[in-house]
Design goal:
Residues 13-21 and 132-145 have low confidence and may be disordered. The chain has eight helices and seven strands. Helix 2 crosses helix 6. With 232 residues, it is an alpha/beta fold. Strands 3-2-1-7 form a four-stranded mixed β-sheet. The chain has helices spanning 2-21, 27-33, 73-77, 84-92, 94-97, 111-125, 137-144, 220-226; strands spanning 158-164, 167-172, 177-181, 186-189, 202-204, 214-217, 227-229. The structure holds heme C.
């Protein structure tokens, strides 16, 4: 029994040491852990969501993703190079690593999760990402409803919005109208190539009911032009 335990411990120790030597993480498993990041991050180059694209993050200076214009002052000022060690410290608890960061993410508690997701980010940057799941982009799309708004079905194509008192009346191309409390309707803009065409706002959200309905416009100046004040 003693002997067995010794052998077992020895093997485990060896596996651990070998793991360390090889950068440890398992990128395939890391691509699944990345599901927790995918609501805010894409690994496609230049595709910025709430957070910057992480396509080239490995060995890069912090706050250097090209075309991402929403970095916090804290991250811009941080003199950090993203390596295994800095990414690990960051992912334990971003707000602790860098007070004032705009990444509102509680952190990954498990060391194994951090190691694996870091191995995945490294593989992505080096063009060796495991095939199959490309970092959960599908999930990112679902969670922020980043559909091609130019292809919205009739029930999503907004034809008019009128406002009377505290109520918006939203008419859509399927001939329906809905009355929504002003506080429950959000106006958004999407200037990307998946956003609506000028003058063709699109309604998204849980069937426009409740507090989740949003109308997305091509640009902010359209909003006040489109919404007409009119009481029946
Ligand atoms: C709720 C949204 C959100 C989630 C979830 C999230 N992030 Fe972020 N992340 C951000 C934002 C926003 C920034 C920019 C922070 C800043 O400017 O301070 C960022 C920045 C980063 C950076 C620095 C990038 C650079 O260009 O310097 C890395 C690395 C990163 N995130 C990794 C991750 C990983 C890995 C996960 C999942 C384990 C994750 N993030 C989860 C929003 C998020």
């Amino acid at each position: 029994m003693q002997v067995f335990r010794k052998i077992f411990c020895g093997t485990a120790l060896l596996a651990w040491l070998v793991g360390l030597a090889h950068g440890a993480g398992d990128p395939a498993r890391g691509s699944r852990v990345f599901g927790q990041c995918a609501a805010c991050h894409s690994v496609a180059p230049g595709e910025h969501l709430t957070g910057p694209s992480l396509a080239k993050v490995w060995n890069q200076k912090a706050a250097s993703a090209e075309g991402f214009s929403r970095y916090s002052e804290a991250l811009k000022r941080a003199d950090v190079l993203w390596t295994e060690a800095t990414l690990d410290a960051w992912l334990v608890k971003p707000e602790k690593f860098l007070p004032g960061t705009g990444m509102t993410f509680p952190g990954l508690k498990e060391a194994k999760d951090r190691q694996d997701v870091i191995a995945y980010l490294r593989a992505v940057s080096e063009g060796k990402a495991p095939q199959g799941r490309q970092g959960g982009r599908g999930m990112a799309r679902m969670s922020r409803e980043k559909l091609d708004l130019r292809k919205a079905p009739a029930e999503g194509q907004v034809t008019s919005i009128t406002q009377c008192g505290d109520t918006y009346t939203v008419a859509t191309a399927d001939g329906k109208t809905q009355k929504i409390w002003e506080f429950n309707l959000r106006f958004k803009t999407d200037s990307s190539k998946l956003g609506p065409l000028p003058g063709k706002p699109v309604a998204v959200g849980a069937g426009m009911q409740g507090d989740r309905a949003s109308v997305v416009f091509a640009s902010p100046k359209e909003i006040s032009e489109f919404v007409k004040q009119s009481c029946p």
